[in-house]
Amino acid sequence: MIVNEKGFSLIEVLVALVILVIGLVGVFNLHLVSKRGSFESFQQTQASYFAQDIINRMKLNRSQLTAYSGTYSGTLTQPATACDVAIGANVICTVNQTLLWDLYKWEQQMLGSAEVNNHSTNVGGLDKPTACILAQASGDVTVVITWRGIRKVSDGAINHSDALVRGCGTAGDRRRAYSVNTVII
């Protein structure tokens, strides 16, 4: 007597579920990798913006160009005079006050102080940023911004030909570096 059975066996269903789960795990991992890559790209874009911001500030305060040189990692205190240029602002600052205000505001932007979460933690800037500026009286300016990335990769700044890039920030397999060389006339 031959019996024709129709339908799926339990083993077939389990094999199909295993294949489905493996596919879903792959899609989930791909999603994580793309999120990390997107965040790394965003951080590099932010570093580019911050470098251009300080260069523009230096252009507006050319007489103090060499005074912008230094290493900045979030330790500056707020100056007594706020030199923000806003609609209706009626503050007149000296070039030195403008210098101090520029560096303070720039440092605060890199730290992300304009965006905080509900635990009062800065979330809008770079992760552990350090910025190094070398401005010469001739107008040659180098701005280097380093920060901590998500993934471990080789530290490209460690073998850089420019000593300013090599020495800016903490060396390590998560250090990212962005540098700009320009001339301010």
From TrEMBL:
PROSITE patterns: PROKAR_NTER_METHYL (PS00409). The chain crosses the membrane at residues 13-33. InterPro entries: N_methyl_site, Pilus_4_PilV. It comes from the Bacteria. The lineage of its organism: Bacteria, Pseudomonadati, Pseudomonadota, Gammaproteobacteria, Alteromonadales. Keywords: Membrane, Transmembrane, Transmembrane helix. This is Type IV pilus modification protein PilV.
